[in-house]
Amino acid sequence: MGQRKQFTAGFKAKIAVEAIKGHRTAQEIGSIYSVHPTQVTTWKKQLIQEAADIFTRGGVYDKEAIEQEKAELYEQIGRLQMELDWLQKKSGILRR
Fold it and tell me: What is the DSSP code string of 14-51?
């Protein structure tokens, strides 16, 4: 079975904006960019639904989410540091 196509966020946005303009149908846009028309419609709906968030946030990111991600990353760094120390100890390699 073939591997699924991966589309960049920029490509999806370009398709969604073109669909919102309404100059072409989802079928036409899909055939131009080799994307299924249903996918075009899905990206269009997604853009419309999430567009309001851009203006409600006012460019300010969710601080709680950022702090959560930061904490998870520090936790992961700690685990990896412990693994590295353990592996170096077991292998006899000493760090300076």
Answer: HHHHHHHHTSS-HHHHHHHHT--HHHHHHHHHHHHHHH
